[in-house]
Amino acid sequence: MKAATTDDATRKQREIQREQDRKDEREKAKEEDRNKKEEKEAKESAVQAGAREQPAGFPPQHQVKPGRESELDPAPRFDAPAYRGSGKLEGFAALITGADSGIGRAVAVLFAREGADVAVAYHASDDDAMETRRCVEAEGQRCLLLQGDVKDRAWCESAVQQTVETFGRLDVLVNNAAFQEHAGSIDDVDDERLQETMDTNLGGYFRMARAALPHMKSGASIINTGSVTGLRGSKRLLDYAASKGAIHAFTKSLASQVIERGIRVNAVSPGPVWTPLNPADSPAEHVAKFGSDTDMKRAAQPEEISPAYVFLASPACAGYITGVVLPITGSVGAI
């Protein structure tokens, strides 16, 4: 089902982006030489502590919103070849917003590897969503594609209803869809942009949770995607950081409200992660050094974040955990 508001929302987001792009272009020439030097230094100093070596530093690139994973260079790593499933979510059904790409896709793949059927809710990128479905089905699980806008209450309710009708249950809701656009000054964040950010990032989480909870039973869980910007703030992402801080508070508050029903609510708070969200936000020259300011001197790949969602979704792993905000930031002292 495609909501009528999807095209309008995409146009609005692109208008916001074009205005910021014009401002950024004036600053571009000043930074090119410095960025080349910093990119080289980042590659040489990046910390590698995971199952395989991950990319450090990226070619300059920029995308129109909402961005496409298929056009990123290098392609984000989401398949986590070192991760072995063990039935942690056997028989579960999950609904993930923003699951066509980035963290959402990586979570969908690992949920399927752990035995869950997955509903992939997405906004506009059909090709990316179909690739996510291919990957989920390759893990041996069913996948339902749901295109629409989380700002639309009726669509949120329909997405949940379709998930329950298709899979017969709903055990895990992952709220992950987001809108982000940087700004140099609070003066650049007009009311329209503020409304778009808050209504997508926070309002969308409210609507999806409200629609999902009547269908969830004891042992179910909700996982919200927060951000390190919600923990530390960000001078370039005033509205986005504010929305993520609110999501962290929403997580703790909702966890308190539904704990007696045996439903857990937690959040994952990532640092910089290589997804379409960032090249569709930052100027190309900023992308080249994306993540280099972390202690690990590089951005994470989606496959380095997604196992945390499995942990929090699984009653076998996190049955005694609710109301937490789990930082995965590549830096010491994230909170």
Task: Describe the fold and architecture.
By secondary structure, the chain is of the alpha/beta class. The protein has one domain (6-328): NAD(P)-binding Rossmann-like Domain (Rossmann fold). The protein has helices at residues 6-45, 102-113, 126-138, 153-167, 191-201, 203-212, 228-232, 238-258, 284-287, 306-313, 315-318, and strands at 93-97, 117-122, 143-147, 172-175, 221-225, 264-270, 325-328. The protein has a 7-stranded parallel beta sheet, with helices on both faces. Strand 2 (117-122), helix 3 and strand 3 form a beta-alpha-beta unit. Helix 2 (102-113) crosses helix 10 (306-313). The longest helix has 40 residues, at 6-45. The radius of gyration is 19 Å and the shape is globular. It starts with 5 loop residues before the first helix and ends in a 7-residue tail after the last strand.
What characteristics describe this protein?
alpha/beta, seven-stranded parallel β-sheet, 11 helices, single chain, 335 residues, Rossmann fold
Strand order of the largest sheet: 3-2-1-4-5-6-7
Give the N-to-C terminal Cα separation: 40 Å
Q: What number of domains?
A: 1
Estimated radius of gyration: 19 Å
Compute the number of helices: 11
CATH architecture: 3-Layer(aba) Sandwich
Fraction of residues in H or I helices: 40-55%
Largest sheet: 7 strands, parallel
